[in-house]
Amino acid sequence: MDIKDRVVVVTGASSGIGAATARAASAAGARLVLAARREDRVRELAVELGSAVAVRCDVTDQVQVAGLAQAALDAFGRIDVLVNNAGQGLQAVVENLALDDFRAVLELNLIAPLAAMQAVLPTMRRQGAGCIVNVSSGTTFADVPGTGGYVASKIALERLTAIARNELVDTGVTVSTMIPFATNTEFLTSIKAGRSEAEEMTAGATFDSPDQVADAILELIRTGDARADLVPVAYGGTR
């Protein structure tokens, strides 16, 4: 899909990969709908980008997600792309994984993207065209101790994405998975639990910039491929 003049909805757009994706899409000529809980940040970004609207949205609230889709239609009359980027980390060994923390991460990393997909798909079906990109994580390529809860949420998202893609064959709607590697964002500071453990695990790692991930997301939108990753070959990826 050529992104020029397309309406692109980005969740988790207040920082990191989401904000970088919004800027890259805007530079390519897209019109943006920016969603995040931190309304002040997305409003500032919308002003910076120009052809953009900001929507305060907690993606774990189905009513707010429906409102996000409606806000996009009210502003631009269509929805061409959804980038499901909002998410949160969790670091704990399985034996000590707090069930409430796990439920919260599943709600944000898996159920919320599903709700957003359901909110935009009727419009995309009517248009006969659309693109959904669900952002996963390179942690799904390995069985690293302490990542079980987070990886479970992202692996489930990957399978949900792949099945949705097959279900939507011949509709003009593509559903794709983007798999970043370690990225320099606020991810570690906003982790649900186990921040110190996560920081220790990633100490000394080389981090990609959010712009690198944003460029990969835009390329995935352009090609409509099933998935893309920024994971080094040494870790099982294609980079």
User: How many domains in all?
Assistant: 1
Determine the structural class based on helices, strands and strand pairing.
alpha/beta
Approximate strand percentage: 15-25%
- Assign a percent range to the helix content: 40-55%
Continuous helix count: 7
Under CATH at level 1, the class stands as Alpha Beta
CA radius of gyration = 17 Å
| Largest sheet descriptor | 7 strands, parallel
Q: What low-confidence regions span 5 or more consecutive residues with pLDDT below 50?
A: none
Q: Judging from the principal axes of the Cα atoms, what is the shape?
A: globular
Mean pLDDT: 93
Q: Taking strands numbered 1, 2, ... along the chain, how are they ordered across the largest sheet?
A: 3-2-1-4-5-6-7
CATH topology value: Rossmann fold
Compute the number of strand runs: 7
The CATH architecture classification is 3-Layer(aba) Sandwich
Within CATH, the superfamily carries the name: NAD(P)-binding Rossmann-like Domain
What does this structure look like?
- With 239 residues, this protein is an alpha/beta fold.
- It has a single domain, classed as NAD(P)-binding Rossmann-like Domain (Rossmann fold), CATH 3.40.50.
- The protein has seven helices and seven strands; from the N terminus they run βαβαβαβαβαβααβ.
- The chain has a seven-stranded parallel beta sheet with strand order 3-2-1-4-5-6-7, sandwiched between helices.
- Helix 4 (99-127) links the parallel strand 4 and strand 5 (130-135).
- It starts with 6 loop residues before the first strand and ends in a 10-residue tail after the last strand.
- The model has no long low-confidence stretch (mean pLDDT 93).
